[in-house]
Amino acid sequence: MSDSALIDELKALLDDGKVLTDAGSLASHGIDWTKHFAPAPLAIAFPRSTEQVQAIVRWANERKVALVPSGGRTGLSAAAVAANGEVVVSFDYMNRILDFNEYDRTVVCQPGVVTEQLQNFAEEHDLYYPVDFASAGSSQIGGNIGTNAGGIKVIRYGMTRDWVAGLKVVTGSGELLELNKGLIKNATGYDLRQLFIGAEGTLGFVVEATMRLARAPKNLTALVLGTPDFDSIMPVLHAFQKELDLTAFEFFSDKALAKVLARGDVPPAFDTECPFYALLEFEATSEEVMEQALAVFEHCMEQEWVLDGVMSQSEQQLENLWKLREYISETIAHWTPYKNDISVTISKVPAFLRDIDEIVEKNYPDFEVVWFGHIGDGNLHLNILKPDDMDKDEFFAKCATVNQWVFETVQKYNGSISAEHGVGMTKRDYLHYSRSAEEIAVMKAVKAVFDPNGIMNPGKIFAV
């Protein structure tokens, strides 16, 4: 069947004007924040209901057409990229909050609800949705679930999967499954909900999610601390965790900070120049807590783990200190960075980073390298910046040649090649560094159960 005939059939399944084939739509909806692959979808479909999603999936099975889910398209692993004539299924119009239960502290969302929309809804009801990251203003809940998004509060609140109370999903064969139904305790066999969290749309599409909310934190306070070297950061983390329940513990290098400050959008935290910085946050619920925080800060200064530091004294200063960390990704995007999102257990971080840094310095002597990450949960972001005068493809090729050594080091420390960005297409060839052959075989078998014809986001996580 010709492409035009397929598109006509697809249009018949949806509302008028909800299948787009113009070049601009194909380019904008066929790609995420990665720049490794050129978008080449057949069409963009915008369902408005679960029934329409089921109709699309059943049609795709009959016509053997591949489908790619699209949310806010803020992903960093090419999981939402349609590069091979797929139909992109965008959830932009399935964007409503359907229900709220104040006693259960749950919200029922469609997959197109933007993360910040859910955060604001929770705040309006004196509650809190704690999964947070720089792209919260554009990322969607369905995409967060598909990648098991983490972000800046994992040390206290965990990943997205910790906040999913229930799911409705359309499987690769078009069946509608309702999973867990919002229960806290449910000991009735396999928890299929967890299979779909982090599956990147390869098993089916989330069409409704019941999300848990938490008590709103009180008087959040941040400290930015400058350290003489990376090895000092972990003793600082340990010292503060002994006394306080931290809501975040981030780190970034002087190069990352320099990029942010050069934009002029936010003032420096203090004048002392340091090679590395830590940003930590806690609830200052009483004078006693504040005194504990200051005592730990003074102890870290005495031990020479910290060279300088500042504590937020207002909400505006809290926001400004966070901007030093949150603006990094957006700022360095200008340099088309080659990103690695890697993790190990917290105790192994210093040795792990030294080994990775040695590999990077040896093999990328002419490239600028920017480190930052969620150090409190063992997650490091390695960003290699493209020189302005180098072709993108040449740059990516040079970076990819060293991946083997980077991921061999990840494997040596029993770490993950993708801590929070997913596998997609950018990491699929390296999956074996984090997963055994037996695990990968089981994963493929699970996909075959839910997606027997292989139409759901094929080529993501592992090759077709």
UniProtKB/TrEMBL annotation:
InterPro entries reported in the protein's UniProt record: FAD-bd_oxidored_4_C, FAD-bd_PCMH, FAD-bd_PCMH-like_sf, FAD-bd_PCMH_sub2, FAD-linked_Oxase-like_C, FAD-oxidored/transferase_4, Oxid_FAD_bind_N, Vanillyl_alc_oxidase_C-sub2
Keyword Zinc set for record: yes
Entry protein name: D-2-hydroxyglutarate dehydrogenase
Reactions catalysed, as given in the entry: (R)-2-hydroxyglutarate + A = 2-oxoglutarate + AH2
Similarity annotation: Belongs to the FAD-binding oxidoreductase/transferase type 4 family.
Assembly behavior: Homodimer.
Superkingdom per UniProt: Bacteria
One of the GO biological process terms: respiratory electron transport chain
Keywords: FAD, Flavoprotein, Metal-binding, Oxidoreductase, Zinc
Any one GO molecular function term: FAD binding
Oxidoreductase in keyword set: yes
EC number: 1.1.99.39
